[in-house]
Amino acid sequence: MSTACCPGSFDPVTLGHLDIVSRAASLFDQVSVAVLVNESKRSLFGLEERLAMLREVTADLPNVTVDAFDGLLVDFCADRGIGAIVKGLRSGPDLDYEMPMARMNVGLRHVETVFVPTAAAWSHVSSSLVKEVASLGGDVSGMLPSPVHAALVQRLAERRSDT
Ligand code: PNS
Description:
With about 160 residues, the chain is an alpha/beta fold. It has one domain: HUPs (Rossmann fold, 3-Layer(aba) Sandwich), CATH 3.40.50.620. The protein has 6 helices and 5 strands; from the N terminus they run E-H-E-H-E-H-E-H-E-H-H. It has helices spanning about 15-25, 45-55, 75-80, 90-110, 125-135, 145-160, and strands at about 5-10, 30-35, 65-70, 85-90, 110-115. It has a 5-stranded parallel β-sheet with strand order 3-2-1-4-5, sandwiched between helices. Strand 2, helix 2 and strand 3 (about 65-70) form a beta-alpha-beta unit. Helix 3 (about 75-80) packs across helix 4. The chain starts with a strand and ends with a helix. The structure holds 4'-phosphopantetheine (PNS). 4'-phosphopantetheine binds next to strand 1 and helix 4.
């Protein structure tokens, strides 16, 4: 059985992420969406919220599971017999950023990285840019699954009322 993981912070999951996950699910028998616990990084959504959103938006993909991981990604993969990491590439700088990690991961525990070109529709989309634009009043509804967009609007409103 071929297995892969799609790792990330997913704060929050975008339609770009979802496109890569669904394409990975058509390439591999089983795919684990691996969500970084990321204690040190300030995230807008907590781990349980990010896991729940991902489970909701991947519910129609029967060979996809959503799991949290901490520590080295290659340890998460190798300990579960996951043979490949799938990453989307939006542009050349993405490749420059990803290549050292891909080489490190194959060197550490023989886990290969498979790069999938991001669909043109999502090539400008990242979680951080979506959060920045939304927090300044821009419309990002076309870049997020609708329950995730609703959760983002609500969280930003909560943050505004806290300040
Ligand atoms: O969505 P992100 O934040 O760009 O995802 C980055 C992620 C989680 C894929 C990357 O930071 C990662 O693999 N972190 C786990 C720690 C690790 O294995 N570091 C060494 C990489 S060679």
